[in-house]
Amino acid sequence: MNALKSSRQEAIAQVIRSGGVGSQEELAERLAGLGFTATQATISRDLEQLGAIKVRKSGQSSYALPEGAAPSSGEPLMRLVFRDWVQEIAVAANLVVIKTPPGSAHLVGVSLDQSDMADVVGTICGDDTIFVATPSTAAAHSLSAKLADLAGIQAA
Predict the structure, then answer these.
(1) pLDDT at 124 over 90
(2) Cβ neighbour number for residue 25 with a 10 Å cutoff
(3) CATH of the domain at 37
(4) In terms of residue numbers, what domain contains 111?
(5) Quick one: CA torsion of 99, 102, 108, 113, rounded to 10 degrees?
C-alpha cells in the first residue's frame, strides 16, 4: 500500500470513529478539510478495504468500523470482522450459512471474498445472512470450524 493511500485510509478511519459520517459525499468533504482529495470511487474502495459498513443508530445512518480495525488486509482484519459481526455459523450440505446482525452481511462477505481460503468457492450476501459455497460437504464442515474459530463461537 502506498503512503498516500495508507494516510488517507488512516484519516478515513479516524473520521469514522469520530462519529456521524452518513455518506461518502460527507466523508469526501471531511477528508478535503484534512488535505485529502479523493473521488467517490476511491472513497468507496477505501471503505470496503477498511471493512466499513453502514449502521443505523438512533434513526440515523452512519459508517462504522469493526472494533480495533486498522488499514490492513488478511486474517487479522478478518478475525476482527468475524468477532464483531458473526453471530451464528451452520452447515447445510456444501454451504456454510453465516448469520450477522441486520445490515452486516456484506461486510463479512467482503472479508471472505478477499480471503485466500481455498474452500470458499463464492458467497451470496443478503441483509443478515451469507451463503458460502464450498466444493463439498466435508469442505463445508472444515470451513465452518475455521470460521467459527475466527468468530470465537461454536459452529452449529
Answers:
(1) yes
(2) 11
(3) 1.10.10.10
(4) 75-151
(5) 90
